[in-house]
Amino acid sequence: MLIQPYLNFDGRCEEAVNFYVKAIGAKQEFLMRVGESPEPSPPGMTVPPEKIMHASFRIGDSVIMASDCYCAGQPKFQGVTLSISVKDEAEADRVFNALAEGGKVQMPLSKTFFSPRFGMVEDKFGLGWMVIIPVPM
Question: Based on the domain organization, do 10 and 39 belong to the same domain?
Answer without folding.
Answer: yes
